[in-house]
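Exam revision sheet. Question 4 asks you to relate a sequence to its structure. Input first:
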Amino acid sequence: MITHDILVVGGGLAGLRAALGLCADWDVAVLSKVHPVRSHSGAAQGGINAALGNAPEGRDDSVEKHAFDTIKGGDYLADQGAVAKMCALAPQVIYELEHWGAPFSRFADGRIAQRPFGGAGFPRACYAADKTGHVLLHTLYEQAVRRGIRVYDECAATCLAVEDGRCHGLVAYDLKRGRLEAFAARFCVFATGGYGRMYRNSTNALINTGSGVGMALLAGVPAKDLEFVQFHPTTLYGTNILITEGARGEGGYLLNRQGERFMARYAPKMMELAPRDIVARSIQTEIDEGRGFEGGCVHLDLRHLGRQKILRRLPGIRSICIEFAGIDPVDEPIPIQPGQHYSMGGIDTDAAGRTCIDNFYAAGECACVSVHGANRLGGNSLADTVIFGRLVAEAINARKGQTDFQPREAVLQAHLERQTRQIEGIFARNRGIPQHRIRDELRRLCVEQIGIFRREEELRRAVARLGELREQYREVCCRAPAGPFSFEILHVLELEGLLRLGEIIARGALARQESRGSHFRTDFPARDDARWLRHTLAHCNGDEIALSYREVDISLYEPKERTY
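Answer key, structure tokens:
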């Protein structure tokens, strides 16, 4: 059994920032399914929001304006106190990252460059060309190496060891050795990312399976607002590789088959820089109504920006287009389509990352604070990760000397043995259902019936089919042999949680008879604050999933119509 004071699960920005804030006073270790610099945080391209007011057209920006844009962009479902805290800390975090060596792009006067992003009243996205997440991830990992933080990479958590309201640690699958390992800890922090790979068409890395949310749910922690799933408007047609919102922030146009800048029909004031939910639905509407190009896409045109600006501000996007689509955006428009991108919902936490389990915390995309409400603004995800990773560390540090809790070996051993028996049973089946068949059916359901546009009949069918898939999971088998780097058994273990999350998304969407942010019901197209200005909480009671609701904090701004 391996023992540390604190286990941080996830080596992305949220996990690394939490570990950096804790390592001075605690024995901290990071568990990561991949090497930390391969975490999905590195895929973020366009920028990180903070009200610095560096851009000439953004000098009047403020923390309050950042907060209002975030609350409005989230269609008033965000908890406003948490939003205010995030926006107030954002400038501090940017300068902290800068002092740690983050190579932000600069204006001519030396200040950190900022570009416009969707739903924002001012250019407040600080960026490093179009590789912002990549450079921030390397910056934090360098600091982790400098401080000697222990990292167990290629080690995937599979279940939390919870008993009597306390987390005693977790069980993890060591991919290098092909075996389960028990980790004991006084505190556990989840920073495991989102559940994008539940969808067939997604910008997410293959590791984004929602495993952290699923583990927390099975351990008794409610999941919040899972029905709010963000679709990014611009993913490369045919591959769903992300094409950053920064491309539109730099002045890119969206064009249909008639050559129209069609966003004038949907958001005449902000055009291509309307919030993502609006732009994604607008693109899909153009495609569905026959104004898209053959195969189902529209064009993102950067040609008018000029070669030098594209090479300087969007070099990564140009490389992606050349390598994966065989086109150069300097000379040709980019074919794009919406694709699943982000999870607004997640593990239910407060603004300090606390859950209903005393010593279990969560931060980043796997957590729902909620600062994104029903729709996240571009540039706020990176801010979320580093800010709430920092706040989790501060909350745990404040408990130094206040708790004498020690994890119990017997609890961990019981969970280890239970997980071992489960794996042995899966390998022992000579016949069964391959996990990829269930997984692929889940992904098809999510895209076709719980996608950008939703309606009652399709949601009911999805709920019923997901119930059938959960029954089929009882007969799942593993065809790959046991041993080092047996990814198939890890996929089998994660699939149980994914099926539950899929059912929660469908049930939450079916119950929510309104349209708000990323959740759009064609049969209930209007927002309904009287009935639905509230968070959805999903609880797992054995095999049953129960929904309950909680009021939204609207202490700063009264909800009003969201227009752009």
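Marking note for examiners. Residues 312 and 390 are 32 Å apart (CA to CA).
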